[in-house]
Amino acid sequence: MTPQQSNPWSGYARDEDRPLAAYGALIGIYNTIFAGFLLAAHRTGRRLPERLGLGDVLLLTVATYRLSRLVSRDTVTSALRAPFTEYQEPGGSGEINEKPRGKGMRHAIGELVTCPFCMGQWIATLLAFGLVFAPRVTRLIGGIFAAVAFADFLHYGHEAAKHRTEG
After folding, report:
1. What is the mean pLDDT of each run of 10 residues along the chain (167 residues)?
2. How many Cβ atoms are within 10 Å of 118's Cβ, its own excluded?
3. SS3 of residue 89 by DSSP
4. pTM of the model
């Protein structure tokens, strides 16, 4: 068997280099963090909720939406993404478009931090564990970002109404 045949990932992406090992490492990091939170909860005697109430689910949903946009697309937070990304162009409404750069782990992190859908999983997990370890603080932080998300939609509505009356 040749080395190419013994590698289960060979041939996955023929025309582009996909950092599958780095993706696997990120999956491992996420699961390690998740397991660490579960272990910490167990060791500190914190009980996991049997279920999340509708209010908390809605709060976490809207806060996750806003935080994932902030982390992955906001102009000001580009300083945090810059080691892993390359600026492309303005994205409108205080956002920018970037693309991952580099190879391996650098590229994989670049993909993670420029994708609000990808960041959503990480952020929702952190917020959920925040409800276990510091529910009052987490609800306050979630409420702040939920308010910002609703305010964003009001801004968009205001701009749309203004354009309708001007045109």
Report:
1. 65 77 96 97 95 96 97 97 97 93 96 97 97 97 97 91 83
2. 15
3. strand
4. 0.87
